[in-house]
């Protein structure tokens, strides 16, 4: 596979480490009501879609960027690659 | 034997003679021959024995689809089994042997299995060898394995080297036949970067095997001219002997180039190269494969595919027989008859299943309409065939054509399914091709030469146009459309004798019908039940006839019957090529610390930790084994001073205004109030609350921390910290860099540690207990100005420091430390003594941080700060992980001090039976403590912190041991920590 790195352009997937569902960005707040239940869901429950999937890849043999890759699990087509930091900010993880 | 079957013409170089042997018999051939063509030239029809029934077999095809002619090449360590003689290029001195027979090829003792065939039909081993049950593993399976199977491995290390490579192109053209050459010419002329790959050593594909004309010249001459033009283009790379074996995601193709297989030796060069080709677009021009027709005893040497027969005649100048008959259901079989007759070879009969007039004039041949071959005779070589009419025709070579199958394999590597085309009785590529791929020529079902040439050009032009190139206006090469009509005939139902469908796996028409009767009707079940389509040829000639026979049984159409899924590789890939250079130690290279050579010279025995080699102990003359060395190292360290290389610990440099806040997230304990110039032990949890890693972190300045991790987790911890930084805390002002390789670090431990360091650290730096107390850290200089970092931390429990210098000074540093330590009898110690001393101090290591244990289990729950969030905090609070009877880390010593504790023993309360239900915990680490003079251990036991003084049983069913042990504090030595604060 080839991942089109937003800063470095197309790179072979062998340079990356796969982590999993990009929902791992959405770590709950420890002080929320029902935080234990939210952390349980965060830690253990994943969707397993047949189709588009947002997932985290780490450019370990490269610039160490964490990326959010939108990949179709049926065709392996990659429709979008973003810096995970930008996604995290967009999802409200700024301080 | 002379070359009795050698003709004139063809593309072999008769000016040179190549000597080779087959089963020790001397034979001759010419450059341009394959082993198969040379064997046929020498009149060798019998070349092997079949897989299951040990039937005599010959050569069926002239290409990589060959199911029968598998041979063993070369000898000694270079021996290679299961090579298809049809693709093995002849070279001078080649030695080839036949396989799968006991005794000689002509008199195979195992041929008796053929008589037992009624008991060995499809699925026989699922039924026949079922009882008694114990016999399967001990008797039946080994016996079957010995009698089946093909060639033999040399059982020696492969002496050849292999390589891997990466290539990039705009257009990859797979196959250099008429469609592929036409495609490559079109794309090359436009300026696109083109790679043209072909599995053959002579590009041209069927052009080399046919007598058809292109642009007014012979096909072979036109191909040679096309190749010359392509070779002259800088933007085209022509790769012969290169099989594109797989279509992977995003335009990536796998290819195997056989660089030296055609030479007597590799002469130090890689034998084969596995290429990864990154293409923007691809044209698959893989051609087509002829299929046989199944009739009784259709596997005799001398029965060949019609296209292969004329390939041997036209390309290699070899006739497979002197009196040839043709059996066909289509027009193409007639070309074989015509080509052979033109060369003066006697073609006696053309047996056509169709009731139709002759396709062309073939001098001397009798045309038998609406007829079929039903049986044959000639056990080790064809002598005659019997038609359904009962007529017997003497012949030594029967050329069979059942029509042509497009080579759709690569179109299906991404789950594409082919489509059945009734008009050509074949599967063609379906609509769901791998992205970027287009198909041209015979592979696309365009089975005539003119169609292949024009389609190759047009498809390539369309592909490169999408990439922004302007296609050249040059028209496609001109050729005639040869006749190519046929009818669908898969097997001859009148045959009562066994009719072979898959000759490599000895699967007959009857086996397929039996599979149907027994309910294995889907093509995937059929394949697994009968083994049809498996092994080196992957059923290239067998699959489609088999599917058609199954479709006949089920009454379904071929489209509905479908094919099994085609997967890479297209043809076999040697394991050596997949491994490439990553063999032996190169598979996982070692990392060496800067003082490695010093340690080697000083008697170190090394152990692999992560990828590192670490000194395990330093043996001295006269020591009787590792225990002697380890005991001495521990005692001398505790007695005076010892030095240990701790370079391999992960080191992460953390800087930024929010560095302390960041550490609060990744560590369970708090770092915000750690003063500058101080070190703190840190514990990391996983998000599920289990302990992950530990280490120390030093605050070098307000916004600058230096972290250490365990050796094994260094990469993982750094990766996770980057995850926290970028994904969880995107706006924190903090930066990370791994400096593991940047610093060489040494622990200096023991009562004389300060005295030793005083001689090394430059005088300006205060090392007094007040000036540089326990857990202090700072930048210093050593040996007269060399920059260094000093940490007063202790794993051994002694007065201890760790000194770090830039890696390039690492070797000098160990030498300086040892020299300065001479007066104190300083001793280097390895990981074993390190382990002994940490067990004596009750420090947790990998055995305790094993991915199952919590901070509570380790007695470190007080470290999990209640005032802040951290990774793992919330889930660590789950009730089940905080039960009153949770296991706790404590120390153990044997009641009988002379007994050796056993790691892995489980604890049972005295009086209870040693059962799983009564399990109280387990022993994690044990060591002989030279300071205490007996064995000591660490372990987890339920409520351990409340049970000190209790005696329990330590049981190890694996070692068949049991002993009584006393629960004690994990701090065996200096429990108050006075030494490390001295």
Automatic annotation (TrEMBL), chain A:
Q: Which residues form a coiled coil?
A: none
What is the recorded name of this protein? Sarcosine oxidase, delta subunit family
Enumerate the InterPro entries for this protein. SoxD (IPR006279), SoxD_sf (IPR038561)
Q: What are its GO biological-process terms?
A: tetrahydrofolate metabolic process
GO terms assigned for molecular function: sarcosine oxidase activity
Automatic annotation (TrEMBL), chain B:
Tell me the NCBIfam families matching this sequence.
soxA
| Every SoxA A3 domain range | 497-581
Q: Where is the GCVT N-terminal domain?
A: 596-868
Official protein name in the record: Aminomethyltransferase
Q: Family, per the entry?
A: Belongs to the GcvT family.
Q: From the UniProt record, which GO molecular function terms apply?
A: aminomethyltransferase activity; methyltransferase activity; sarcosine oxidase activity
Q: What organism does the record attribute this protein to?
A: Roseovarius aestuarii
Give the EC number(s) listed in the UniProt record. Answer: 2.1.2.10
Q: Which domain of life is it from?
A: Bacteria
Q: Which InterPro entries match?
A: 2Fe-2S-bd_N, BFD-like_2Fe2S-bd_dom_sf, FAD/NAD-bd_sf, GcvT/YgfZ/DmdA, GcvT/YgfZ_C, GcvT_C, GCVT_N, Sarcosine_oxidase_asu
Keyword annotations: Methyltransferase, Oxidoreductase, Transferase
**Residues covered by the Aminomethyltransferase C-terminal domain:** 888-974
Q: Which Pfam families match?
A: FAD_oxidored (PF12831), Fer2_4 (PF13510), GCV_T (PF01571), GCV_T_C (PF08669), SO_alpha_A3 (PF17806)
List this protein's GO terms for biological process. methylation; tetrahydrofolate metabolic process
